[in-house]
């Protein structure tokens, strides 16, 4: 299983998948009771036609299951894509580690000194230029201290007998890594990519989207390119 490392400790894996470029075209050709065993140039044309004309249902006879490990603030943005990702039932397409049950050590996303961004000059959301490494280093250190204090209070509460499901309130949640499975059809994945690859999406979810794109492209090269081309 290929694993792409992202965001100082996170990763994305394509855990499982169903279908191929050929299954997309066979799903379209079933209307004529036709089926092929090998993809050819005509299939390339058909995939392009389907994406261009918005005949999207053949792309939904596919499924991609990703295991993702990212900071919670990225997972929250990713979760907004659960409607279009629902393969059969949107409510089963997302499962996440919650820290209600698990005893795994919490891990946190801490930007390096050269990874802190300034407030944008002309927009209410997003980021501007990177801060200097000197200023960034100060915030990396402050975040490390903040997380250490949160972990200390978490442990103190647990040792005092507080339930893990409440003790987790002390953990700095936005930066805490969470692990989840996200399953969607290729159409849902492409819709996510169309919204989260552009520059206006937050840098951290763009990094996640680029990894998802690389993994999905290996299995559905023609279909994914066509869906992204016609957006
Ligand atoms: C740059 C950026 C900034 C954002 N900022 C914010 C923010 O500040 N706050 C916030 O809450 N969200 C924000 N979002 C999230 C955004 O509003 C969407 O919720 C998110 O991108 C998921 O996309 P989606 O709604 O298309 O859902 P997806 O699950 O990706 O796709 C759903 C698909 O199904 C279709 N669909 C959904 N419901 C129906 C229906 N009932 N009938 C027919 N079709 C349906 C949609 O048209 C869409 O094609 C932001 C997104 C981006 C890209």
UniProtKB/TrEMBL annotation:
<dbReference type="GO" id="GO:0032259">
    <property type="term" value="P:methylation"/>
</dbReference>
<dbReference type="GO" id="GO:0050797">
    <property type="term" value="F:thymidylate synthase (FAD) activity"/>
</dbReference>
<keyword id="KW-0489">Methyltransferase</keyword>
<dbReference type="GO" id="GO:0070402">
    <property type="term" value="F:NADPH binding"/>
</dbReference>
<protein>
    <recommendedName>
        <fullName>FAD-dependent thymidylate synthase</fullName>
        <ecNumber>2.1.1.148</ecNumber>
    </recommendedName>
</protein>
<dbReference type="GO" id="GO:0006231">
    <property type="term" value="P:dTMP biosynthetic process"/>
</dbReference>
<dbReference type="GO" id="GO:0004799">
    <property type="term" value="F:thymidylate synthase activity"/>
</dbReference>
<dbReference type="Pfam" id="PF02511">
    <property type="entry name" value="Thy1"/>
</dbReference>
<dbReference type="InterPro" id="IPR036098">
    <property type="entry name" value="Thymidylate_synthase_ThyX_sf"/>
</dbReference>
<dbReference type="GO" id="GO:0050660">
    <property type="term" value="F:flavin adenine dinucleotide binding"/>
</dbReference>
<keyword id="KW-0808">Transferase</keyword>
<dbReference type="InterPro" id="IPR003669">
    <property type="entry name" value="Thymidylate_synthase_ThyX"/>
</dbReference>
């Amino acid at each position: 299983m290929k694993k792409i490392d992202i965001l100082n400790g996170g990763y994305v894996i394509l855990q499982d998948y169903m279908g191929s470029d050929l299954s997309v075209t066979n799903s379209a050709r079933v209307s004529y009771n036709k089926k092929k065993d090998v993809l050819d140039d005509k299939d390339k044309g058909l995939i392009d036609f389907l994406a261009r004309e918005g005949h999207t249902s053949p792309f939904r006879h596919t499924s991609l299951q990703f295991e993702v490990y990212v900071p919670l603030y990225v997972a929250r943005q990713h979760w907004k894509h659960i409607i279009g990702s629902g393969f059969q039932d949107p409510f089963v397409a997302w499962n996440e580690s919650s820290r209600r049950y698990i005893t795994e050590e919490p891990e946190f996303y801490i930007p390096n000194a050269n990874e802190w961004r300034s407030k944008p000059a002309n927009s209410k959301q997003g980021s501007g230029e990177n801060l200097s490494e000197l200023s960034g280093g100060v915030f990396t250190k402050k975040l490390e201290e903040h997380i250490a204090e949160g972990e200390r209070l978490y442990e103190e509460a647990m040792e005092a007998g507080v339930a893990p499901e409440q003790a987790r309130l002390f953990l700095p949640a936005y930066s805490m890594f969470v692990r989840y499975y996200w399953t969607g059809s290729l159409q849902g994945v492409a819709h996510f990519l169309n919204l989260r690859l552009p520059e206006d999406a937050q840098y951290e979810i763009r990094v996640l989207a680029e990894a998802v794109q690389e993994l999905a492209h290996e299995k559905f090269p023609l279909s994914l390119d066509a869906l992204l081309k016609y957006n």
